[in-house]
Design brief:
The structure is a homodimer. The first copy, chain A, is built from 12 helices and 13 strands. With about 400 residues, chain A is α/β, with parallel strands linked by helices. In chain A, helix 2 (about 50-60) crosses helix 9 (about 270-280) and helix 4 (about 100-115) packs across helix 5.
Chain lengths: ~400, ~400
């Protein structure tokens, strides 16, 4: 029988230019001694023991936990309470369970953009958002942004007069990834006003419960129906459970359920039940407080180290939420080159700003920018990692 | 502040016609006393106790099970062995882990079809396949098929001369859903020859290990590179774990990983580790044998009941694999009407043939056809359910 060659499998046009994402490279290929690269929880802070108890209870409750079944009603009710912590009043019937926030974005891309539709995001954006929308081959319209002033709302308003019917604006209002900014009141008011007029907003809020100063409510709290909220247990419970949620108007849920069914079956999973049991035990609020406390210490520790380490003319953010610090080095430093040397010579990883540029939109400062994660490493590792980066910068 | 109305969220064009799938309706809305409607494992056959032991061991092994991390290498190696049971020799590097077979289909739709691409399937097809491809708004080309002679390969060859570059042909070669047919040798040889020439084939094989007579190898066994295999633990271990796999040429894995990352993050999940631990304990082969034995008995029990129950002029399949029997009633019976009465008056469910018709392709016989599942109910339930259906048919 004639054997085919692999080349004969013909890929869809958009898929021919797929490259490994910087995040996957860091997760699967690089094994740096010290990593500030990814948005990983601190491993020693994961509640393994309580989740073990929860898993045992779920499996002891009968075969229903292993069978196809509707998404967990109880978990949807628990999320109504979690949304209250974010300042959002919603009903369980508005909560749609997903396999993590990333699936929420992927489903919304299908629901609201569709093939070759339009979408708006900031020039610096979570790379997973771009990966969620790319299979639709959308027109991506970007607005200016930076880590200190946030998204250019004037620019957004101007863009909306030019670009007809964008599917939605994608935004992190609290603990931005990668810029680490939490939006101020004025920007929030203007965004909410825009959403009330013509613009659907998708608010991706994985870090909303990890706040260190103040307590910014979700953007969704001000405008119930035209802002779709994307929530996640990955940063506050466990990434490997793959449980997240959307808060979206009830009339969208038939379509959401059908799209999820087409994506990975819209069934109540084992993980949903384990998360639900853990939350039912009452431990989530306490766990989130413990995380926020630990991460605040790590943030402060890294800020101290940055002040001692970075060359004059550098600037960096002091994030009030989230798990990243955004750093801009002065000329002539280059973050991509810095990463190469940090990885190969010192076993230290971070991600350069250019990794987060939406297509067709490279900022001049991107090559001098770094995203540093502070949740994953211990204080000793932060100290040592920053010391190694300082060595490279000193000898530049 | 002005409140928006829900109507202001504008859906992508394809999404405006989404309706709840018949499978979701059965899973979430109907609670019939006896259901032959869905492809559910028998609940009492799920290995809850062994999975409980596995979950405890996974969680006791440290926080890695709850953290982001690469897909499970060990599980990929275990799947190489499982593929041997299906007659397929492959490498672990060709195994790509998914959140169930459905996600495998959704990823392949993005990879191989793309926005407004082309695809080929049979006129009767698994509805989840259509849901996986719909967000791409593809041109769906169908070939004739029936439960006794299988897909019309002559028609497929003719279609391939008319339709340029279809992304792939979707097929169940073993234990077809919904038609219950297992393809004979000649059809397999012709399909493999076609795949060696110009046609990528996606072989969805969730029932390949549930065979009752004979031992049909996967189509993939005959042609390593141009057939992509879709596998699942949902029918042989637990649907709620959401673990499945693809076997695809290595050069596609960068793109597969990126698409999965965009869909729900390409990370090793808790469920993967639990499945892996269960398999490592050596229990899978024995469990599959136990299932096949139990399902064979249920199949035979249902076949007996059909012979006693159905009106003269009916015909039905004797499936050698899978978990469904396909029934065709004579004129003037109507399966949709039968379902209405069975559900509302007798608490019995099944799915009518029309639920599985690919768009634009209704067979004349579809309205007289039923798909009956025999894996989910006990023998007593099968007896009672068929008795109730017989009552309706007798009084037609």
């Amino acid at each position: 029988m004639t054997q085919t060659t692999p080349a004969e499998i013909c890929l869809a046009r958009w898929a021919r230019s797929i490259r490994t994402s910087p995040l996957q490279t860091m997760l699967t290929k690089c094994r740096p001694a010290i990593s500030f690269a990814l948005g990983l929880p601190g491993p020693e802070l994961l509640p393994a023991e309580q989740l073990s108890v929860a898993a045992a209870a779920v499996l002891a409750s009968g075969p229903g936990a292993l069978q196809y079944g509707p998404p967990s009603e109880e978990l949807r009710h628990q999320i109504v309470e979690i949304m209250r912590w974010r300042g959002v009043e919603c009903k369980a019937s508005e909560v749609f369970l997903t396999s993590g926030a990333q699936q929420g974005l992927s489903i919304l891309a299908k629901l609201l953009i569709g093939p070759r539709g339009r979408v708006v995001c900031e020039k610096y954006v979570y790379t997973g958002f771009l990966q969620a929308i790319e299979p639709m081959m959308p027109e991506v319209h970007t607005i200016e942004t930076d880590a200190w002033s946030g998204p250019d709302i004037d620019g957004l308003e101007a863009l909306l007069t030019r670009v007809a019917d964008p599917g939605f604006l994608y935004i992190n209002a609290t603990g931005h990834n990668p810029l680490s900014l939490t939006l101020g009141g004025e920007a929030r008011i203007r965004l909410v006003k825009l959403s009330a007029r013509a613009l659907t907003i998708v608010e991706d809020d994985p870090y909303g419960l990890l706040q260190y100063e103040g307590d910014s409510a979700a953007l969704k709290s001000a405008s119930p129906s035209s802002i779709i909220y994307v929530g996640s247990f990955s940063k506050i419970l466990s990434p490997a459970l793959r449980v997240g949620w959307l808060v979206a108007p009830e009339h969208l849920h038939t379509a959401l359920a059908s799209i999820k069914e087409g994506s990975d079956i819209n069934t109540g999973t084992f993980s949903q039940r384990v998360a639900c049991r853990f939350i039912a035990s009452g431990g989530l609020r306490e766990h989130v407080s413990k995380l926020a406390c630990a991460y605040r210490r790590r943030r402060d520790f890294m800020l101290d180290a940055l002040a001692r380490t970075l060359p004059s003319g550098s600037r960096w953010t002091t994030p009030s939420a989230g798990i990243f610090i955004w750093v801009e080095l002065p000329e002539p430093y280059d973050a991509v080159e810095l990463l190469d040397r940090a990885l190969s010579e010192h076993g230290v990883a971070f991600l350069p700003g250019v990794a987060f540029c939406a297509k067709d939109s490279a900022h001049e400062s991107a090559r001098r920018s770094l995203r540093l994660n502070f949740s994953h490493c211990t204080e000793d590792q932060i100290e040592e990692g920053m010391r190694r980066i300082a060595v490279i910068l000193r000898d530049w």
